Fold:
Amino acid sequence: MTPEALERSRNWLAQADLRPTRQRLSLATLLVGDGQDRHVTAEGLHAASHRVGDKVSLATVYNTLRAFCDAGLVQEITVDGTRSYFDTRMDDHPHFHFEETGELIDAEAAQLKIAGLPTPPDGYEVAKLDVVIRLRKTS
Structure:
């Protein structure tokens, strides 16, 4: 962990008033320490923590990612209802999901045009619209 990465991670947690516990700081550094946005799964973040020598349990990774979501630091993107990715980029934007590799990347938001949405039932409003474009290689 470089001092810059550690400072960036501390500031990231502080903006959401999250206490910088050892586990939170370690996982935050993997997520935002280099200043780059990323999409991770809990399992991928767990493996990354072990690669850098931090033995955080998978349950702790899930709980920490949930706390980051609740605090508005990451957003959860669900693909096919079976796999969740956690995105550090918080603005509304679409995603490409590569079926062969499971990779999730950002798609260009300016290129997405939505002409309209169905009217929600009485007493409800649209809270968020997630767009995941699933890709498969052509033959």
The CA atoms of residues 101 and 110 lie 25 Å apart.
